[in-house]
Amino acid sequence: MHREFLMGNEAIALGAIASGVDLVCGYPGTPSTEVLETAAKYRPEGTYVEWSVNEKTAMEVAAGAAYAGARVLVTMKQMGLNVASDPLMCVEYIGVKGGMVVLVADDPGPISSQTEQDTRTYAGFSKVPCYDPSTVQEAYEMVQEAFLLSERYGTPVFLRSTTRVSHCYASVDVKDAGEYLEHAAEGFVKDSGRWVIFPRLANANHKKIVERNSALSDVFSDDPINKVYPEENGSRKGVATGGVSFGYAMEARERLGRMRLFKVSTPYPFPEKKAVEFLRGLDEVLCVEELDPVIEQALVYVCGKFGLNVRIRGKLTGDVRTAGENTVDSVLEDISAFMGEPVSRKAVSGQPELPVRPPVLCAGCPHRASFYAVKTAMKGKKAVFCGDIGCYTLGNAMPLDMVDTCLCMGAGLGIAQGINRIEPDTSCFAFVGDSTFFASAIPGVVNAVYNKADMTLIVLDNSTTAMTGHQPHPGTGITMMGGSGTAVSIESVLRGIGLGFVETVDPFELDAAVGAVRCASALPGVKAIVFRSPCIAVSKGRGPASVSPEKCVGCSRCIKELGCPAISMPDGKAVIDTAQCTGCGLCSRVCPAGAIGGEE
């Protein structure tokens, strides 16, 4: 063993490697992305790692490998679990032969997601056992325990992390390479009675799953990772918690007095017998958790089942806020109020609120040019602009104001079709990024062509998966293991589906871009424009632009129409921040006075 300073996601990946993982696959999504990236970086020879086209495909690839006896780790964020839920629900009924761990990183806040979704609730819904680490060290250890549990019971197992565990850094005791387990996959053994999910098999296995999870409740009750910390002051009040909130609750416990505390590390199946041990002798319990009242509801059930007269408080009773992530301060405030020693949040932190920095497209981002081209072409016309998930969601901000809807990955295509069916006189546009195109947009294009929709698809191809850290995708022709794959052509896919109008344009060639949009929008049926220009993180540009003060008339058009963060007007004249400017040239094409040009 040795110690390393690791991010939580790095620790999870190294824990999987120490378990002899044979295959790692997933789809990038903050806050989960670094797990797969770390696995790719440190993978032993013979371990396969891939960015799959989406989470559903990743789950299916992992299932196939687990059928063959391999140990597999599949990674995603909480929104990706929705995409992967179809195969996941079925794999739970079929079972696995090799260990299968499903790493899902939840995003309380939400900080970089559409929703606050709790994987612990999904665990109960899907009947999949779940581990909920509260520290980086536990994340490292629990992924190894999860592989063993998965193989012992023939089931996929959730490892549910959250942002503050996934992105926290800590010194971790990790195994030396010589201590890694070596795992040899047996290979796939044909058995249609086991691997083909007919209704009769599903019915029989459903009964087995219920029996297994009942037994696992007892197993988890005896597992020391679920722990009761005793009180030292005779208090008849207790706190139940789990995940990162456990650390916050322990800090409050030290400050307010050592009340009894129940740490729940396996929220499903719930460790009922350990819960009874915690509850006996208490009058009230406060549940502190992110996000759903999973522990709270489980304790209410346990009290009823075992006849315990204990009042359970938390989110359902309004004693703890129902949304957002917990913090050291918020947990201290909640527990102190519960214990009868209220502490105001301002008194707790003693720090001023941090200023809010609004999200904005980067200076030189090609998406700004794409949005501006479409906005210019459709000025004065009735149009709806359906957005999607990615950096380009930021096109909703003023002055661009070019995202009228945004739901989930790939949904813009269907929404545009639905709006047009109700308002045929509206020009409907759907924007989608290149990575998202491959992940979830293609069925929407097929649907549009098949049903003879009238819409324009705008593919924003910046040659990377920018929002989650610039991962490769099928259009780049680069694989996660560093090899050269087959680059899939977006234009060829669109033409193969049946689109007659597919045009590729550099969005910074403003006149050509505007012309392409006008042409496409005037045609009936399904049309597509691929705006292709690399992300500034991929290609840094030509160097900063400059402003001629003598020519600048102070009209502010460069700011009012583009909203580029590299441009300001402190003294009535435009000023370029050379540290941010990439020389994309868009502002020079907008300037009516010709005051903006390349660096002299």
Fourth-tier CATH superfamily name of the largest domain: Thiamin diphosphate (ThDP)-binding fold, Pyr/PP domains
Which structural category do the helix and sheet elements fall into? alpha/beta
Q: How widely separated are the two ends?
A: 58 Å
Helix content: 25-40%
How many domains, in number, for the residues? 4
Count the beta strands.
22
Please list the strands of the largest sheet in the order they lie side by side.
3-2-4-5-7-6
Profile the largest sheet: 6 strands, parallel
Query: How many helices does DSSP assign?
Result: 21
Regions with little confidence, pLDDT below 50 for 5+ residues: none
CATH topology of the largest domain, which one?
Rossmann fold
Overall spatial form: globular
Give the SSE map.
Layout: E1 2-7, H1 8-18, E2 23-26, H2 33-42, E3 48-51, H3 55-67, E4 72-77, H4 78-94, E5 100-106, H5 119-126, E6 130-131, H6 136-153, E7 156-162, H7 163-166, E8 169-174, H8 192-195, H9 199-222, E9 227-229, E10 237-241, H10 244-256, E11 260-263, H11 272-279, E12 284-288, H12 294-306, E13 311-313, H13 328-338, H14 345-349, H15 366-377, E14 383-386, H16 411-422, E15 427-433, H17 434-450, E16 455-461, H18 490-497, E17 501-505, H19 510-522, E18 526-532, E19 545-547, H20 557-562, E20 567-568, E21 575-576, H21 586-590, E22 596-598
Parallel strand pairs: 2-3, 2-4, 4-5, 5-7, 6-7, 10-11, 10-12, 12-13, 14-15, 15-16, 16-18, 17-18
Antiparallel strand pairs: 1-8, 9-11, 19-22, 20-21
Helix pairs in contact: 1-2, 1-6, 3-4, 9-11, 10-13, 11-12, 15-19, 16-17, 17-18
